[in-house]
Amino acid sequence: MSRSRAREFWCEVVSETVHIRLRRPGGFGGPQGYFVQCDQADCQYVEENKPPCPLNAAMFADEIRAADEARARRSE
Q: φ, ψ for residue 34 (rounded to 5)?
């Protein structure tokens, strides 16, 4: 997957605008799928994507679908 562009997002947890990106975990044997990375390093929920963090991979559904379609075309 190509590097996604950062999006601005108002985060109610830290009460400020943060920048978020879609990421895939790296390394073998790690978790599969996608997660949303936030630039707010001081947030206790950074890279957790669990409540009360409002971030989730569904926010990038169009990009995930495009990446999956591109991957399927390459494997044909």
A: -130, 160
pLDDT by 10s per residue, the chain, length 76: 445 789 999 999 889 999 999 988 776 666 678 889 999 888 888 778 889 999 999 999 999 999 889 989 888 7
Sequence spans of domains, the chain: 7-74
Query: pTM value?
Result: 0.75
| DSSP assignments along 1-37, one per residue | -PPPPPEEEEETTTTEEEEEEEE---STTS--S-EEE
- For residue 36, give the amino acid letter: V
Query: How many CA atoms, within 13 angstroms, populate the side-chain half-sphere of residue 66?
Result: 9
